[in-house]
Structure prediction request, 328 residues.
Amino acid sequence: MNILRSAVLGLTLSLSCLGAGAQSYKMTLSGASPSGLWTVLGVGIDGAVKASFPGSTVTYQTSGGGLANIALIDQGKVELGIAHDAELRIATEGGKPYAKPITSLRAIALLYDWAPMQMIVTKAFANKYGIRSFDDIALKKPPLRVAFNKRGNITEHVAVKMFNAIGVNLEDITKWGGDVIYAASDEQGDLIKDKRIDMFTNGVFVRTSFIVQAGDAVELVLLPVSEGVIKKVSRELGVAAFVVKGGSYPWQAEDVPTVALGGLLIANAKMEEKTAYDLAKALHKNISKLQAAHPTLKAVTPEFLASQKIIPYHKGAEKYYREAGLLK
Prediction:
């Protein structure tokens, strides 16, 4: 009886330990639109967490984008969010729309940093006014009809800063006889195909479909950005220099320098250290789930996850990355 009692007690303790060690998470991830890159990133993140912690669910929630997600994280309304590096720079410095600097933000992982600002003009317009580079717009002062992304979108903000960096304010464009239009990505493509604009600017992955389709309908030029503008905007907004490789589009033979936006998975500093540790571990150990979410994400490596420098890593994520040899 004593032997049997000891065996049962040992089995009970073993099962208890197994139960205590099992961990699952139920979290909400705030992204942007119900479709697009951040949605598939949500699928990849959910898959990685599920693979490491069976029974877990990371539910994707639509929102107004990174600026809105930062506020939701700061207020503790969601556990996770995605935001651009430029949006995080604005938030930590207390720029609009925030009333004061936000200090609660912590990184879990860098997800990508290759969404370049693409300054695209029709070839006919470029030839007519002798525009060979983005800087030439300030020199030539053409009657430019240009489309920015919708107001409040970070790519609109970065584009305006890029124009400012060459000495051009939006009022200058209208003074020259041009026009400034705000339009979402697909609408930008339709506008240039219909010859209702001469140029659009957007921060999206190379070969995003609306650009490819516009280039099939109208001859386009991807304008190179000068080193001075790249340095100024990178310093101000935390974006990085980027080169769109020659041949990325059939109508773009040469390498074209510009700046690119990056996307980060973020949390509140108040998140439990173990939770942030487990999230970083899940993304590292199941990185294939992220890589499979979108063709361009195949470039994500374990080292890349731990390479951002815009905001501090959560101490739990940092602890994991150091143990894994990804941070020194």
